[in-house]
Amino acid sequence: MSATVSIPTILRTHTGGEKQVKAEGSTLQEVITDLEANHPGIKDRLVTDGALHRFVNVYVNDEDVRFAGGLDAQVPDGGTVTILPAVAGGAR
Amino acid sequence: MARYESLIHALGDTPLVGLPSFSPAPHVRLWAKLEDRNPTGSIKDRPALRMIEQAEADGRLTPGCTILEPTSGNTGISLAMAAKLKGYEIVCVMPENTSAERRQLLEMYGASIIFSPAAGGSNQAVATAKEIAAQHPDWVMLYQYGNPGNALAHYEGTGPEILRDMPTITHFVAGLGTTGTLVGTGRYLREHKPDCQIIAAEPRYGELVYGLRNIAEGFVPELYDPDVLTGRYSVGAYDALRRTRQLVEQEGIFAGISSGAILHAALGQAEKAAGGGDEADIVMVVCDGGWKYLSTGAYTGTLEEAAEALEGQLWA
């Protein structure tokens, strides 16, 4: 199961500057494990005490994983995984 | 009765209109609550006025006070209008990469603006505003990201109006920013209809906006209560623009770009519902009209050109 993972600017030090990388896994947990194997150090930036870091948002096929099973969220073959830091966002 | 004491009183009770052309199946219907039909043209009139009234009741706001707020647009415009009518000064802190119309409107209403850097978007505006608040203890920062009055405005206004007009509601879809609309309206709706889906459409911006120096600079609004939501979807500029244009082309509704993002998420829910057999009434929010976004190129040229023009901007 292969997914395309979008890496935010602040984590690209782990991917040699790449903004998109491939990862294998059928759950988010597996994808993160595969990311860590290829890009050491990235896991600690994403996961704290067995859960996603408070200020990190992850979307599988544009759905926030916290509403789709968290680290157990299913990642379909060919799916997208988007990692973004939590920001106050736009025009309020 | 459509007569009111002044503009501030003509708040809320906005129309709920059907979107028949977007219905994917006869048993699935979409509806838009037109929040541009508010005193300054956006849903933010609700939380802005509620926060001011609460502060007045608490004695925090007295004649001649200065209001301070991190806001890149609608909330600042709402607060500035109310401040003008009620006799307060107002200072808005906003990122430098927001549309020209916002700045013009704020200045027209008499607000002073302090610009924060584009990188890091509203996180930086919030941080800057907090610093300024510390330096000016006599200024009153209402703080839309954490002020319970924000969510309460929707719990007491938006939610009840929706349930009154659409008792068969199955889904509520709105934008996620301060989280006030979703948390306030969502709480009300789920209290009265526990099975109602509460769906967040979160704008996904270009890289610049996420250009934090480290994860610790991240920010989650104090109002956010994820337990109220049942789903949260990220929507990029291209999809938001595509839907915003469809909204005016198919239904004649000229809305801001966040409304396009919301429609995109609502249509996703509509597709799911169409596959099932149950009736669905999906209510989405139109936050504001498209006027403030004309200069962004959102409504002209190709979608690709328009999406690219929005790349560095806080378009919602």
Features:
heterodimer; A: 92 residues; alpha+beta; Ubiquitin-like (UB roll); five-stranded mixed sheet; two-stranded antiparallel sheet; 7 strands; 17% helix; 29% strand; B: 316 residues; alpha/beta; six-stranded mixed sheet; four-stranded parallel sheet; 9 helices; 10 strands; globular
Helix and strand topology:
The complex is a heterodimer of chains A (92) and B (316).
Chain A: E1 2-6, E2 20-24, H1 28-38, H2 42-46, E3 47-48, E4 51-52, E5 56-60, E6 63-64, E7 80-85
Parallel strand pairs in A: 1-7
Antiparallel strand pairs in A: 1-2, 3-4, 5-6, 5-7
Chain B: E1 16-18, E2 28-34, H1 45-57, E3 66-70, H2 74-86, E4 89-95, H3 100-108, E5 112-116, H4 121-135, E6 140-141, H5 148-165, E7 171-175, H6 180-192, E8 197-204, E9 231-236, H7 237-251, H8 257-275, E10 280-286, H9 303-309
Parallel strand pairs in B: 2-10, 3-4, 3-6, 4-5, 7-8, 7-10, 8-9
Antiparallel strand pairs in B: 1-2
Helix pairs in contact in B: 1-2, 1-5, 5-6, 7-8, 7-9
Structure characterization notes:
The complex is a heterodimer of chains A (92) and B (316). Chain A has 2 helices and 7 strands. With 92 residues, chain A is an alpha+beta fold. Chain A has a single domain (2-85), classed as Ubiquitin-like (UB roll) (Roll). In chain A, a hairpin with a 2-residue loop joins strand 3 and strand 4. Chain B is an alpha/beta fold and 316 residues long. Chain B is built from 9 helices and 10 strands. Chain B has helices at 45-57, 74-86, 100-108, 121-135, 148-165, 180-192, 237-251, 257-275, 303-309, and strands at residues 16-18, 28-34, 66-70, 89-95, 112-116, 140-141, 171-175, 197-204, 231-236, 280-286. The interface between A and B is large, with 24 and 51 residues.
